[in-house]
DNA sequence: AATTAGTCTATATTTTTTATAGACTTTATG
DNA sequence: CATAAAGTCTATAAAAAATATAGACTAATT
């Protein structure tokens, strides 16, 4: 399961994408529209900013805005940033790899093989689908 | 990521499958062979037993054994039992469904659509692959 | 200068995961 | 039938992670 943090990030990003024309959006507006604790959301938006996904402006008329078009923000990027590994096991993670302690040889480990396939199937979707793909269709 | 509990369960099941000919296997043997805390492993094996996957025998010559052939134990079964939902969001879980609070209509929610696809791709593998498929190949 | 709004650092709370303890029951066998 | 072997059960503890909050600080606008 994705953490609340990641789920909130998706909802916030969707809101920002659906309101690009309004310029910078207040944290408090996103928080109340999406029913997220404002202080918790602050942290999340900051992380997204530090990762280069969002930009911000302080003072009156300030707020957060997308730094890229929704099409350019893959879902996998958001998940890895806020949730960590997408793979089901450390030994099949591309970005957070850790050697398996219990198994002697990954090359002949059947669990490794199956979980690699699961990872590939998942990434095929999450790396190719972007913020644009999760905007509400009408 | 799968929890340690689920990872330990896989390793224990693999060990049991690879030693079917030896009759019931001691918890302590699995624990030391796979470097798992014996008391923690106890709980895990009990859960697997209560779910009908393992059987056990008390007293001398006792231990745990598989109640079904490895082929009949889908990986998804183990994961759901010990880890809960396989889906990335509650609103796309088949076995642990919860309605999404932030979205008005799941039918037109893009996040719902993508995450359903991820779930389907994952389940296609985890429900069709069994304990047999993760045994070490030689 | 005053107000608005994001930034930063720290901490608190809650939940989940991981692990342990110990008394109890069942079974085999000498 | 006594003893030892081995799983069962209930409870609790410890550690880690997830979730949430507080408040002082900085930057921008008017």
Account of the protein in words:
The structure is a homodimer of 138-residue chains. With 138 residues, the first copy, chain A, is mainly α. Chain A folds into two domains: 4-66, Arc Repressor Mutant, subunit A, CATH 1.10.10.10; 73-134, no CATH class. In chain A, 46% of the residues lie in helices and 6% in strands. The first copy, chain A, has a two-stranded antiparallel sheet with strand order 1-2. In chain A, a hairpin with a 5-residue loop joins strand 1 and strand 2 (63-66). In chain A, helix 1 runs antiparallel to helix 4 and helix 2 packs across helix 3 (38-50). Chain A is elongated and about 60 Å long. The model of chain A has no long low-confidence stretch (mean pLDDT 94). The A-B interface holds A 1-2, 7, 10-11, 14, 34-35, 75, 84-85, 87-90, 101-102, 108-111, 113-114, 117-118, 121-122, 124-126, 129, 133-138 and B 1-2, 7, 10-11, 14, 34-35, 75, 84-85, 87-90, 101-102, 108-111, 113-114, 117-118, 121-122, 124-126, 129, 133-138. The first copy, chain A, binds a DNA duplex (30 and 30 nucleotides) through residues 3-5, 24, 26-28, 37, 39-40, 42-43, 45-46, 49, 56-64.
């Amino acid at each position: 399961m994705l953490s609340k943090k990641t789920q909130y990030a998706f909802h916030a990003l969707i809101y920002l994408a659906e309101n690009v024309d309004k310029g910078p959006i207040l944290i408090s507006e996103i928080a109340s529209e999406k029913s997220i604790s404002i202080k918790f959301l602050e942290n999340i938006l900051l992380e997204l900013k530090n990762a280069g996904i969002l930009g911000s402006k302080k003072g009156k008329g300030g707020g957060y805005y997308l730094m890229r078009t929704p099409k350019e923000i893959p879902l996998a990027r958001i998940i890895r940033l806020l949730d960590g590994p997408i793979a089901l096991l450390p030994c099949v993670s591309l970005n957070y790899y850790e050697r398996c302690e219990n198994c002697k040889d990954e090359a002949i480990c059947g669990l490794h093989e199956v979980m690699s396939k699961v990872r590939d199937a998942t990434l095929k979707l999450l790396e190719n689908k972007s913020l644009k793909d999760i905007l509400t269709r009408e």
